[in-house]
Amino acid sequence: MAKPAKMLLNVPAIKADFPILQRKVRDRRLVYLDSAATSQKPKQVIDATTDFYSRYNANVHRAIYELGEEATREYEGAREKVAAFIGAKSPNEIVFTKSTTESLNLVAYGYGLKGKLQKGDEILGTVMEHHSNHVPWHFVKDHKGAVLKYVDVSDDGTLKMEQYDELLTKRTKIVTVALCSNVLGTINPVKEIAKRAHEVGAVCVVDAAQAAPHMPIDVQDLDADFLAFSGHKMLGPTGIGILHGKPEALEATEPLLGGGEMIREVHLGRASWNDVPYRFEGGTPNIAGAIGLGAAVDYLTNLGMESVRAHEMEITQYALDKIGRINGVTTYGPKDVKKKAGVLAFTIDNAHPHDVASILDVEGICIRSGHHCAQPLMERYDLPATARASFYVYNDLEDVDVLAAGIKKVQEVFA
Amino acid sequence: MMADLRELYQETILDHSKRPRNFHEIPSADASAVGHNPLCGDRVTVFLRLSDDVLSDVAFVGQGCAISKASASLMTDAVKGKTKAQAHELFQKFHRMVTGRPGDPVDTPSLGKLAVLSGVCEFPVRVKCASLPWHTLEAAIAAKKEIVSLE
User: How far is the alpha carbon of A371 from chain B, nearest alpha carbon, in Å?
Assistant: First the structure.
């Protein structure tokens, strides 16, 4: 458990970029360990959104004047940055939404409900999905008569891949899976899952909300058909989400929102649609959000996603060693950091996770407690709730030390 | 412990959460209700025996955080032998206390031991934990059969 003298990322310099990390909470240094819920924002991102509103606020794709051209250039520039960030072949493969949730609903609605799916077609999900990758598919079941099936998770927190092979048949039309679990931190073998899905003619939908902020993603290598993630979990603003789709997958998807921007021609009673991806961006988009996201992508690209991942592996290993070994503490999910992102769910004997969170709050530590929007997974492990610490680029080993000390305080209270 | 934390986790609260009073089912209960807080998974069932208008026996079972468990335990002690109207009035006073501002005067003569939960007002997210047993009691008194859900 020896602490390395120097971490891979220059954390003090990174911390200095985040205004919120300079504040105190209940007279203590803020130790923010809830980035899996939402990340904090560096001043570069805050400045980019402020700059838009201060200098060139105008609607995009409409205004025939300089401000509008600047706004459109920056908005489309953000699309190009996101495309490059995940290795997309073209910015046209990137749809801006408001969240991962909206991205997944767009696929469930536009590809599932309004698309080619027939009654009795099967959708194969997993037990470890976030509610946002469960509930949209319930709609498809309820309104289209699709059949939902689920791959179970082992006690060690990994997917039962042999069960995946059993459940995957010619009837399967959609396979949907998280690249990284928001509770267990498990990194799922999505490349393999997508490959096998394609062998039976199914498309693969990936919830990358917990993965895109934390590890390099190459959509060419993964070869999934749809991939959804959020800006706010990767240093960007809230209210901006991303859907990546292969061109043929997006062409086969009906829009979720009708209105301005998404049309080519409108007549009374009928309309024709704009090209992909604008077809899916009805209404004035979150322009400031997209521009802020572009700045977040720049920030992460400057750090290097390989370095971000290596940094989080280092913290996660240290946390598994330090927190996992405290008597009376149970951790969940894989113990091998090669298979685990920087998410650590844990429980403390005789202490409810809500009490744990309240006591840590008084120490200036922000963690999550509850079911983490993953009730089916909590039922699978027969847990009413857990505490969860999650790490990001601005965390260091000292933050883990503060958490460990906080956990000891919890144990003193409930001894 | 820091001052506000000591407020939230007073000795009486810890005692009632670790050794809850009236923590059992009442097999021949006149009324019962289930309360559920989906946010944290807290679940409580309150059982009542009524003699005319008086709560002659009150008990609970369930799982939850220290605050909800202690609140349920203290509540059952406090309302036993009271009329429905008195129990309702006590809930009103309790609710005012936990949703008040830190430093507001606490009506200790009326609230008795329930006053130990006054520290909850410093932690607004925990108000639901403290009030879940009370909402469930009200539902049992109204003999509502459905699950009380606090979101």
Answer: 7
